[in-house]
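Case study: Helix-turn-helix domain-containing protein.
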Amino acid sequence: MSAVERLLDVLVTVATASEPVSAKQVSERAGIPLSSAYRHLTLLKDRDFIVDLGRDLGYGPGPICLKMAQSFDRTSQVLAVALPEMQRLSLLTQESVGLMKALGTEVFCLEMIESPQSLRCSFSKGRSQPLSRGASAKALLAFLPQTVQDEVCNRLLGDDDAARSALLRDLKEVRARGYAESEGEVDAGVWGASAPIFSHDARLEGGLSLMAPSTRVGQRRDELIQLTVATAKVISMRLQQV
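Here is what the predicted structure looks like once written out:
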């Protein structure tokens, strides 16, 4: 077992315990020497993953664990609200519909309702793409703080001033019209429309994306965009009522 695996075992032991645990209990439950348990506990405590509640109590989950739990609960709530609307949109359009979330400099697919028709697309549940290309990415990035946009540009585009200017121009247009549209930016021959999802106080929770082969879009383009935007607004409204 590697040092990283032992460290994770210690974290899981503390985070899943029903009550605070001592270093000795961590050592026994994780199957590691007491000296190793102390070393890993100290590292986790220094990074705020756990807290030392005192000699008589032991160790418990720290601020980072609590923030992770809150984030998980919020994501689960968004998915629970969004899923029925995603299924309805996919059934109505017969196209693929995804729920996206921005994580760092990536756009991550939380859920995907696959089209009954064929579609070759890089997005699938659990996969991510750079937060600089495609409708799914831009519909999220456009509504994130300027500091995040700058970080994405710096990390993904580097010194390419032309690409940076083009992306910032696209984001301005997305904010103005309330949705993003792209064709072939992530996958050749794939068209996509994406709209942001907001909860209370205009908090960005994710994005709703509809994807289809360009050959199937044609005169349906405006209708598909309108349906995507309308569905994202319904999800946002329901989240704000929770």
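For the exam, be able to explain this: The longest strand covers residues 204-213.
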